[in-house]
Structures are given as C-alpha cells and as structure tokens.
C-alpha cells in the first residue's frame, strides 16, 4: 500500500507536467483550432532562456522573467508567423507550427550546444522526502505538483473572473459575435498564444530537473501532453489537466507493477486513451463541435 | 442618423450588395424587407463593420463609419442582434450580457441597464446563471436582443428577431422593440421576413431584391401596396 501511494504521488508530479503542456496546447487549439506542434520546443527554448537567467539571479526571479519572455515570444509568434496564414486553408498554420518545431530546435542547438545541462529543482520544498505515515514522498515532486496547481488556479481565476478572460472564452466560441460585442479578436488570439507559451515555459522549468535540460528534453513529454489534451477533449482546459494527471499516474503505476520484462507503461497508457476515445469520442470533457454551415 | 449610400459589398466573388441606399432618421423604426439572399443581413454586417463595402459610404450622425473596426462602431453607439442569434451558448446568460457591455466602463450604469434588460425579459433574470445553450429559441432571441441593449446603443440593428418563434412570442418581442424605441429613445433598424409584424411597428420600410433597393415607402403605404402584399404579406 505504501509503495502504491508513493507511486501515485510520483505519477501526479509527472502528470502535472503533462497537464501544463496539455493546457498550453488547449489554450491555442480552442481559440484557433490549430494544434501547435512546436509547443514542446517553445517550452524547451524558454527553459534554456531561464537557464541563462539562472546564472545571474535567484530561482524565482529567473522563473518569472522567463515566464515574461515566454509571454512575449508567444505573442510575437502569433503576430508574425500565424496571423498571415490564418485566413488560408486549415493546414497552413499547422505546417507553420511544424516548421517552427524544427527552427526552434536548431536555434537552441546552435546557441546552447547539444550537451545536457543541470537545472535546479523548485526551491520551494528543500530537503529529504516527506514522511506521511509509512510513506515517503519526494519533496521535489510536491514542489512540481504545487507549482502546477498554482498556475492552474491562477488561470481559472483569470478566465472566470476577469473581463479579458471572459472575452477570450467568447472569442474561442464565436468570433463573429465577439467582434459584434466590440472585442478585438486579434488581440485575444495573440494573448492566447502568449499565455500558452508562458504555461509551456513553466512546464519546461518543472521538467528540466527531471529529464535534464537539452534540445530533445521535450520529445518524450510532448507526446504525452498531446495525448493528455486529446484524452481531456482538446477544447477543455480542465480536461487537459485531468487527462495529464490521469496519464501520469497510470503510466507510473504500469511501470511499477509491470509483470513483464519489457516496458509496457507506454502501451498501457495509450491503451487507456484509445478506450476512452472509443467510449467518448470527444474526450473526457470535450464538447461535440457542431459545424454550422 | 444613419445614412447608407450606394453601398456595394461582396463575399469573395459573390456580390451581396449592389448600390444599396437606406436612411434611418433618429428616433424611428425602419424595417428592411426582402426574401432570403436579398442582402438584408449583408447590409447589417456592413453597418457593423463585419463586411467592408467595396464602394459607397455609411455615415452615422454625420461621421463616416464604413472604414471603422467593429469595436469602434459598437463604441460610437451601434449594436446588433445578429442573424441566428449568435449567443455564446457555453457561457451563462449573465456572462453573455456582460459581454454585451464589453466596450463600456461605466460600472454603475451597466448595472442599471442590466436591471432594465431583466425588466424587459424577466425570464433572463430568472435564468441568469444558466448556460445560454440550454435556453429555448425564444429565450435565446431575448438574450441576443438584451445583449445588444447592454452596449447602450443609440441605433439598434435587429436581424430577423422573429425567426423560428411562435406567433405569441413574436408579438411579445415586437412589443419590447416598440418599448425600447419609445421609452429609451433607441433608433431601430429592423431586418425581417415577417413583413406583417415589421410594418406594424416600423414607420418606414425598404424592400431589398438581389442586393438592391426595389422599393421604399412609409410603412402604411407598403402595407397597402399590391406587389408588397402579394410578395411579402401573403394576402
């Protein structure tokens, strides 16, 4: 039982990184219907930028500066790269994000080199594991989980209680009607990209101490993040979070109680996704998209 | 108050408006009649800034608005309850109404206007926390009109408020349109297929055919006009 709880806790930590990345994907998808394939690389880039900051200042200052830079980069990408292709065929913006994937990877490789770099853990919970009864839970994992939860709560409050948050939700639903309300839809899309990049940056900084900071640090994670987003329903932020956490826990438990010699955790995690999608094609919390022609 | 002059507009290669001219005097209710595809909704979209005219001008209180962004047009006092209602189905009734007042910053008056909308449409007050998608068709229409009123317009554009509603509800909604016009002094430009109802509340009417004004007259004369009766009134 002790080990079970421990593994669930570890799963929640990895799961919250999936959840944040999935959230970043959903923030863009639900307002533009574009899957940003460069989401992971964007997070990787901003984590490298955070690493540069970290050589000059303390953790939290670097953390917040990196988030600010990510907001700016996200906004810039939407304005400069995505806006011009938005009116064209649906595939065009997707191709742009694929190109962005390669471009960001090359730029970081060129600037920072290919060696993995150490990245500090969240300094919120220092010291040895926390003992709860017979169970030891790693403080680093608690740090990851708590940081992710704080980000999610902040986003929830923003979308629920602010005027701009409401306008962003309106834009995601119906652009024409939003324009009639006087909402500047273009600005909302820019803001969506900016926030998505910022959430991705946080995910990157939480993941870097675990997977080591390198240009390919996101390859394993982003696949799960996309899977988590699909599992949650692609349009639902809450779904993305639930999807991410579920996936993290299932994957971890499958690895722990694996009766075979080979690693089946990936297979089991994806089996669950397939099952969910067969039963609920729109994902856990996704809404059926009704196209009015 | 509003002067649409010789406006041409198209969706890609499809010409929707070919030289439409319409005038709406302050304080009046003007109806625009016409069959499906005659260009009625396109005209309202052009006024709201969603469809850019390729030729012609649109003036509001002497100011040209045909090059303004939609949000500026809302700010200067024109709001619209569009075709097909276009409410935000996944947001609550209250959130829809708050979005109607998006360009305003006068918190106190927004609250008063909210109360006013609830007095016109009590059912919206009762369901303020409900998701808008769960409302009935008539309630959604009320929400669409209420949302447009929350912008505190001086000119209200209504696109087919009667569409798909039971006759009793249609009457109720037209009564409110009349109240809004008479008590709040809001000028109304009304696009309708239900010519009967529209000509009952309007003082003046235009008939659009394939993107052009085919006829314009006082509402009274239109009701008596043989061709209008046959084509749009059904008797």
What does this structure look like?
The complex is a heterodimer of chains A (293) and B (235). Chain A is mainly α and 293 residues long. Helix content of chain A is 71%, strand content 2%. Chain A has a two-stranded antiparallel sheet. In chain A, helix 9 packs across helix 10 (237-256). Chain A is globular and about 60 Å long. Chain B has 235 residues and is of the alpha/beta class. Chain B has ten helices and ten strands. Chain B has helices at 40-48, 70-75, 93-100, 107-120, 122-126, 137-149, 167-183, 195-201, 219-224, 226-233; strands at 2-11, 14-24, 29-34, 55-60, 63-64, 78-81, 155-159, 187-192, 204-209, 212-218. In chain B, the strands form two sheets. Chain B has a six-stranded mixed sheet, with helices on both faces. In chain B, strands 2-1-4-5 form a four-stranded antiparallel sheet, with helices on one face. In chain B, strand 1 (2-11) and strand 2 (14-24) form a beta hairpin. The longest helix of chain B is centred in the C-terminal third of the chain and has 17 residues, at 167-183. Chain B is globular. Chain A binds chain B through residues 163, 166-167, 169-170, 173-174, 176-184, 287, 292, and chain B through 48-50, 69-71, 74-75, 79-80, 82, 84, 86-91, 95, 98-100, 102-103, 147, 151.
